[in-house]
Amino acid sequence: MPWHYIDPGQTQQNAFIESFNGSLRDELLNEEIFGSLDDARRNLALWRYDYNTVRPHSSLANQTLQ
């Protein structure tokens, strides 16, 4: 299967990742000041765990993965 790239300026072609990027920016990147790269990695790991397993997901009828 050949690669299919998103056309420049057509972010609606990949709404899932755009939604994820918006959540990441709003909930983590705009809220934290990182003191080091290790601090950023640690905070990102915690946020990613929460995003993937703790918070309710509309695709799962607002259930969590736990």
UniProtKB/TrEMBL annotation:
GO MF term list: nucleic acid binding
Q: Output the GO biological process annotations, alphabetical, semicolon-separated.
A: DNA integration
One Pfam family per UniProt: rve_3
Coiled-coil residue windows: none
Q: Which Gene3D superfamilies match?
A: Ribonuclease H-like superfamily/Ribonuclease H (3.30.420.10)
Domain Integrase catalytic intervals: 3-64
Q: What protein is this chain from?
A: Integrase core domain-containing protein
